[in-house]
Amino acid sequence: MPHKHTRRHRNDADFDLQPSVKARPLSTFGKQGKPVMKGSRLGKAGKRKRKSGGGYGDDTPKAFIRLMEYSQSGKRPSGLDDGAMLEKKMKIDAAPNVEVPKPLPGEHMGDYSARVDKALPVAGLVRKGKGPQIEGVKERQTRTERRLHKLYDTWREEEARLKEKEEERKELEEEAEDEQRAKYGEGIVASLPARKGKRKRGTDGDEDDPWKMLKEKRPGPKSMHDVVDAPPSFTALPKEKLKMKGNAKVRVDSVPAAAGSLKRREELSRARRETIETYRAMIQRS
After folding, report:
1. Is residue 258 part of a domain?
2. Which single residue of 38, 84, 103, 185 has CA 20 to 30 Å from 204?
3. How far apart are CA 133 and CA 127, in angstroms?
């Protein structure tokens, strides 16, 4: 259904006028559409209300106050005497004149840009989220940041210590080499004791050859008709796998735990050993 509003009442005498009649000015309306009443705050926006002091207050005449101020300062007040307080303007120091560097003849643009950046007065500026915001005030750090900074300091100390140790080692090697040259001659340099730890490839010839080391460790390719001369030799003998049950040791060898209880595993292990011993005895007899 249509939502109808009641029409505002209007004065037809002021709305539809004859051509010979002059229209009178309409009254102003506020924010709510109501006419502004005389004596209201909006009607007298330019006038300030005087505050009446409690009791007698300060009843000194303003003319006398102006005379006293003029006798002390020697300057007449500027502006209207309506009680309005003027804000004092703060003096702003003039910015110092900074000479902008000019490009030199034959200078690269990168060098000129570096000179311009160096001449800019940005030393006191603070980047967003970086550096102390106020001098003398410690910036707040989280627990993770403190732990990371402590870790970084430890790494730097360790790196400096290793670097110093490496320099000392090089100095000792140079001193030993100088002594050997002075003793045996300029063309003969005695071999110094090898450094423990990792070595660089190519320093000691065959000792650092990875293929030679692999050939020594691994046997050659086996053919189908190869014959074994001797049984294999074990450097580390396998140990018996014993399980502790109370104070007694139970021998289960390599029977998996999925076979059942510890007693069943022991029985299976005993049967396995008996089968292996019987098979070996049969092979020896044959």
Report:
1. yes
2. 185
3. 9
Look at the block and give the residue holding tokens 């009641």: 6
**Cβ neighbours around 252 below 10 Å, total:** 22
- Of 129, 161, 185, the residue at which a domain comes to its end is 185
For residue 265, count CB atoms less than 10 angstroms from its CB and return exposed for 0-12, middle for 13-18, buried for 19 or more. buried
The number of beta carbons lying within 10 Å of the beta carbon of residue 266 is 17
Domain for residue 79, yes or no? no
For residue 220 the two structure tokens come to 């050659």
Q: Cβ distance 141 to 149 under 8 Å?
A: yes
Range with the lowest mean pLDDT among 34-38, 167-171, 247-251? Answer: 34-38
Domain tally, the chain: 2
275 is a domain residue: yes
- 83: tokens are 């009680």
Handedness of CA 52, 54, 57, 59 (dihedral sign): positive
Spatial contact of 169 and 161, defined as CB atoms under 8 Å apart: no
What pTM was computed for the model? Answer: 0.24
Q: Is the dihedral of CA 148, 150, 155, 156 positive or negative?
A: positive
User: pLDDT tens across 110-158, in order?
Assistant: 889 888 888 876 655 655 555 555 566 677 789 999 999 999 999 999 9
The last residue of a domain, from among 153, 185, 217: 185
Supply 15's token pair: 């709305």
- 265 belongs to a structural domain: yes
Contact yes or no for 166/195 (Cβ under 8 A) = no
Quick one: pLDDT at residue 152?
Answer: 93
* Closest to 85 (Cα-Cα) out of 74, 75, 73, 77: 77
14 CB-side CA count, 13 A: 8
**Residue 262 lies in domain:** 252-285
Q: 82, 77, 78, 57: which is closest to 66 by C-alpha?
A: 77
List the one residue out of 215, 216, 219 whose CA is nearest residue 229. 219
